[in-house]
Each structure stands twice: as structure tokens, then as C-alpha cells.
Design brief:
Blueprint (H helix, E strand, L loop, with lengths): L1 E8 L2 E8 L2 E9 L9 E10 L4 E5 L6 E4 L27 E8 L8 E3 L4 E2 L3 E4 L5 E3 L6 H14 L5 E4 L8 H24 L4 E4 L4 H9 L6 E4 L2 H14 L7 E3 L8 H4 L2 H8 L3 E3 L5 E6 L3 E7 L9 H22 L4 E6 L6 H15 L6 E6 L5 E5 L6 H5 E3 L6 E3 L10
Parallel strand pairs: 1-14, 11-12, 14-15, 18-19
Antiparallel strand pairs: 1-2, 2-3, 4-5, 4-7, 4-13, 5-6, 7-8, 9-10, 10-12, 16-17, 17-18, 19-21, 20-21, 22-23
Helix pairs in contact: 1-2, 3-4, 7-8
Length: about 425
Amino acid sequence: MKQMLMHVQGEMLQTAVLANGRLIDFFMEKTKASSMVGNVYKGRVVNVLPGMQAAFVNIGLAKNAFLYIDELLHPHLEKQPALKPMIQDLVKPGQELIVQVMKEPLGGKGARVTTHFSLPGRWLVYMPTADYVGVSKKISIEGDRARLRAIGEKLRQGEEGIILRTAAGGESEQSLHGDIVQLRELWQDIVNRGEEAAVPSELHREAGLLRRAVRDTLTMDMDEIWIDDGERFAEVSALLEEMTPQLRKRLKRYEHKKGQPLFDAYRVTDQVRKAFDRKISLECGGHLIWEETEALTVIDVNTGKFIGSSGLEDTVFHTNMEAADEIARLLRVRDVGGIIIVDFIDMGLDNHREQVMHRLMEKTRSDQTKCTILGWTKLGLMEMTRKKARETAVHLLTERCSSCGVIINKKDVRPINSK
């Protein structure tokens, strides 16, 4: 049983995805302060730094956006020059430029922007200048991959690029055609507005959490979709009719039963609190210690109370395998991004080390956000990365203790409870 729960509390929208009652995804966003990732702006180059091969662009935010040279070259790697040019040969101070936010401002850093434009639809991602067709690696049936690639080549025009998303698996050419026509019109509208707009100005705003959840997270294996707000229920219903009419019958309005909020009724509140703790217990009796810093996330695996029954090596191996499962789940729930270091318990057998790494790879494969497992370091640590683009729920649900610096759950914030 797979369920999506949408809870509205004031300006906060929270979305939880459950698989057999277990939380596997969690998103939250303030409706009046939506993410800037995907927004398109017309800006002006303020400064060019040859030593960094980068430029700063004024797009109307408090801090100038950062544009690295790779984001100015052709989106298709095979069409990039063999010898990378200097940034000052591509842009000049005072030059007007249309850019798209790929990473929103985090901490003291400004937004990171690109000229590799991409507009996501329900079934595909439209890239107006990429000149290639890609198919999601998560579509594993080779016959369907070849079919989708052929449709993509047929649908694209000129220098357009298309990436067929995971949701496109099994979809008809008609559905994909409708998607690209809509996105092509959207891009032309952005271009037209860019010709007349003042500098700096916003040309396009990416969809908010509600539309992104329907577009990116809802799949045909979703059995139930619950929402506890009448106005948002109508919005989701309309979005489903537009994008995936087959799922419309699975949408249900949640009415409080005996004053029990939606997230409490499905045990989401408790699961979120535990997921954002510094110490997370494993079913076997072991536990994780989770530390997040500005530079990276460090996860320490401990056997705790688990003593096993057939020797130390098996005890350690069993704990590490369960920890790999839980880490993959929590990376999604906490929406962790950037560098991640996992200190698994030392194992004596190379075979066990390989199995733990492959388990982590297998479990992160279903993550919609790109995860890269780099493997074991010389110090015996597991090194991995996860794409980071938006401010995560951890910043809304936690705070850093002013005395010891440890990140703790906020005592005065209850964004996951509608009481």
C-alpha cells in the first residue's frame, strides 16, 4: 500500500509519502516563500572573475547569483570546445543575460544559475537548446527505452533536447506530444517576455510544492492520495485531471475523526520527529548518530544494544545492512544534499563490505534525487553525494543549539501537527 498525504497548516504545506505505513518521503514548503529553483530571470552581469572562471549576475535578489563557465557552454557535452575558453571571452560586465536558478541561496551564498534551461513536465523535461534525447536510467526495460528514445527524436524540433522521465515508462506518444507542446509554448512565452522585460526581472516562476508533488511524485502505483484542506483538495483534483486523470479516483478528502489530524492518524507526526532526531534507533537494537554541518553530513553507525547470536562479524554485518536501508530512507525524508560520509562499523570480510555498498546503491536507486555512491575511502568510510538544490525541511524543523552547536528539533515549532 502506497499513500500520499498532504497536510495544510496556515502558510505551510507538507507532503508525506508512505509505503506500507512507513515514511519514505517528506516535503514541506511555505506557500508565500516558494523555492526559486527552476525560476528564470533576466539579469545583468555585474562582475567577471577570470581566476574563478565565473561571473556574478544581478537577478534582483539580495545577493548576486553565481554563474560558472560550464553553465555558459553548450548543454551537449559533445558540442563543447575541446579547450575550455576563458569566462571573459563569453560574458562582459553590463551584459544582459537570461538565466535559470539551479540552486537557491543557502546560508551566505547567492543563488547558482545556468543557461542550460530545462522545463519539467509530467512525462518529460524540455531543454530548448540541448540537442539530444535522454531516457531516465530508472526505466529498465530496454524495449521501452528504445521506444521512448525514438518518440523523443520524432517529437523534438531543431536544437531542442528532451529527457524522458521515469513516469514516461509505458506512456503513449500522444501523452508525450501533449507535454512537449505545452512546454514549447511556455519557453516561447519566456523568450518573448525576455525581449521586453526590464533588468533585473523574473520571467518564469517554477511550480510550487503542490504542483511539483503531483507532477514529480505521484506515480501510477500510488494507491491513495489524502488531503485535509478543501481549497487545496480542489487544486489537486484539477491538477490530476490535467496531468494524470487515471489517479483522480484515488484522491480523497480527509475529515478529522474525533479531532485527530491527518498526520497523526497515519503516524506521520511521530515518524517525522524520530527521523529528524540526532540519534535514530534501528530495529535490531543498533543506532545511527546523525550530524549535519554546512560542509557535509556525517552518519555514524553503532551496534548499541544489539549483540547478535553467531559472532561479532555477523553482528556487525547485520547492523550495517540494516543501517544502509535506514540511511537511504532518511536521506529522502530529511532531503539531505551535498557530501555525505557514513562511518559503518568496521567489517573484517571484503565480501561483507561489498554487500553493504551494493545494498546502499540498491536502496538509493529509487530516490528521485540523484545519489552517487563513490565507495569506501582509505579510512574505511563510505563516501557519497546527493544533489542539493532547495532549502530542506531540516532548516524548518530544527535549530542549532547556541550553547553546544548541536542541531536539535525546535521545541516551539509544530509544523507537522494541525491541532
